[in-house]
Design goal:
mainly alpha, two-stranded antiparallel sheet, 25 helices, Serine Threonine Protein Phosphatase 5, Tetratricopeptide repeat
Length: about 575
């Protein structure tokens, strides 16, 4: 089925016209992202693709639909079987090299930008649709989704949502009902989208606001709702089936390891914390001069209760709500853009279900569609006033917009280089976010892998100082100390981590091992008994209890052998 746009303005009936517009948008998207073809695997690419056997073969592909997205060794799970299948196909056909992945990413970005244009042409004049798509094509906040291989899930999600909404709006603009073929296509896109990334589950809500704000239909709302009901009913049934399968595979609806800043927070507390981040979301969508691969405390605020720092976010939300109310009838495309932004960002808003991120630039690709469409609505109004000015003013206005696009392309290209490989990402992350605990945490992990122990230790100590209530860095550093038989330093870290989060079996085992190595047998025995009583690895802790008992018997006579290390132990007077 063709998706060539039915023109919004009377002068757009030549199909070659929108095709030329599409080619210019494709060129802008390619200029912004094409340099990423030379990138390698970086950051999460290593665990999800390079070190994930599921992503290396097309044998028995149906088994992927019973597996988690993240390898189980990484803690998080999620459920994106179609994404892993797509990665596996690229691994097989590309020989495991990163080039094909990046070629697909860049191609998807070009397609997404053209789809923004086509959707814009359904509801905006040509000038507004083109400006909206051009801003989308050069937006620097999209770099993470395009330059990092695993951002491909965002690009596929964007393609699915834009295509489905475009088909719906186009069919509704041309008739009273949705043809069966188009309805089947929308439902198929919906199912595929959910299997690619869970964010696609918002598609029914996007169709509702498209019907509300973009479709010109004078019939009563009851009649319009009746026509939409059947489509939404089928989508709801598939969504429930998807959630059931996801629950069976991952054990929970979310499946992500929650961000440390969200740990043990109620829904109300998470809402307040995210309210404090609203200005940062706004900055990234409107003027992303500073970008980062991570947004964590202390780089961004993390208020879990009422605080004066929440006022800017509350004021910004109030202004957006007022704009939504004012534009509801006067400028419905603006209202549609705001509603799209809110709906598209809701899966990562951390309010209903906590996720592993506070803010991630890649997750803003789909929400930004609403922003650029709302901006596109202003273009005719601006052009009308600029055209009344002198020739110099008109040239200056055109030059200013060209400069804006050039700045966007330049910033996008510059940022793409920071995703060249993991070393570049982690080094850039520390420079971009020196106050983010995660920047130092991941950089320290990379340095340990490269056997730069002292530098890695410093990075993890900084991470602990920046976020003292997070247990994982303490446990990881304690493990490193224990491996080096530096248990004097490891024990306090284990104890503090267990004070923060008692349910850490590996930390308890590490603590008992260190007590045994230090010949503190009574402490080892007590720690092992407590862990066994609480149900953590009974066999392992029973074994350590027996070692401690044996050592205590041996040392009662004044000396003996440390049963854990095999070293002679002389009893101190």
């Amino acid at each position: 089925m063709s998706i060539a746009p039915r023109p919004y303005d009377a002068g757009a009936d030549d199909p070659r016209g929108w095709m030329w517009l599409g080619l210019t948008i494709a060129a802008l998207a390619l200029l912004s992202s094409g340099v990423g073809l030379h990138n390698g695997f970086a950051y999460d690419d290593r665990w999800i693709i390079v070190q994930n056997a599921n992503a290396h073969s097309l044998n028995r592909p149906w088994e992927l639909f019973g597996s988690t997205y993240w390898p189980t060794s990484r803690g998080a799970s999620l459920y994106r079987p179609l994404t892993i299948l797509i990665y596996a196909a690229q691994w097989v056909f590309g020989g495991g090299a990163p080039f094909l992945y990046h070629l697909v990413n860049v191609s998807l970005y070009v397609v997404d930008a053209v789809l923004v244009l086509l959707l814009g042409l359904q509801c905006l004049p040509r000038s507004g649709a083109w400006v909206a798509a051009a801003l989308f094509a050069v937006h620097p906040v999209h770099v993470e989704a395009v330059a990092n291989v695993v951002g491909q899930a965002e690009l596929w999600t964007g393609l699915v949502l834009l295509s489905a909404v475009l088909i719906y709006v186009r069919e509704r603009q041309g008739g009273v009902t949705i043809p069966r073929g188009s309805a089947i296509a929308i439902v198929a896109l919906f199912v595929a989208g959910m299997l690619i990334k869970e964010n696609a589950i918002v598609l029914p809500a996007l169709l509702v606001i498209a019907e509300l704000f973009l479709v010109h239909d004078t019939r009563p709302w009851r009649e319009r709702a009746d026509k939409l009901f059947t489509l939404l009913l089928w989508m709801t049934m598939f969504a429930m089936a998807y959630l059931w399968v996801r629950l069976r595979v991952t054990g929970e609806i979310g499946g992500d390891t929650e961000h440390p800043a969200l740990s043990h927070l109620s829904m109300g507390q998470r809402s307040l914390l995210m309210l404090g981040l609203v200005p940062e979301f706004g900055r990234l969508l409107v003027w992303p001069d500073h970008l980062s691969a991570d947004y964590s405390p202390q780089m961004v605020p993390g208020y879990g209760g009422w605080h004066a720092g929440l006022i800017p976010g509350a004021v910004l939300l109030l202004c957006v709500a007022i704009l939504m109310f004012v534009s509801w009838r006067r400028a419905p495309v603006v209202a549609f853009g705001i509603a799209w932004l809110v709906i598209a960002i809701s899966p990562v808003a951390n309010i209903l279900i906590p996720s592993g991120i506070l803010i991630a630039e890649r997750t803003l690709l789909v929400p930004s569609v609403g922003v650029v469409l709302a901006v596109g609505m202003l273009v005719p109004w601006v052009l009308e006033r600029v055209n009344k000015q002198t020739r110099i003013v008109r040239i200056a206005a055109a030059g200013a917009f060209a400069l804006l696009l050039t700045l966007g392309i330049g910033r996008s290209v510059e940022r793409t280089y920071s995703w060249k490989d993991s070393d570049t990402v982690f080094n850039t992350l520390v420079a971009d976010a020196p106050l983010s605990f995660k920047a130092h945490y991941v950089n320290g992990g990379m340095l340990f892998e490269e056997h730069h122990g002292r530098e890695a230790e410093i990075q993890w100590l900084i991470a602990i100082k920046l976020m003292p209530d997070y247990y994982a860095v303490r446990v990881d550093l304690a493990h490193k100390y224990r491996e080096l038989h530096h248990c004097v330093a490891a024990v306090p870290l284990y104890l503090k981590a267990l004070e923060i989060e008692p349910a850490l079996p590996l930390a308890r085992i590490g603590l008992v091992a260190c007590y045994l190595e230090l010949a503190q047998f009574r402490k080892a025995r007590l720690a092992a008994l407590m862990a066994r009583a609480e149900g953590y690895s009974p066999r392992a802790f029973q074994f350590t209890v027996e070692i401690a008992d044996s050592a205590l018997v041996a040392t009662d006579s004044g000396g003996g052998i440390n049963q854990w290390t095999g070293k002679h132990r002389t009893r101190k007077p």
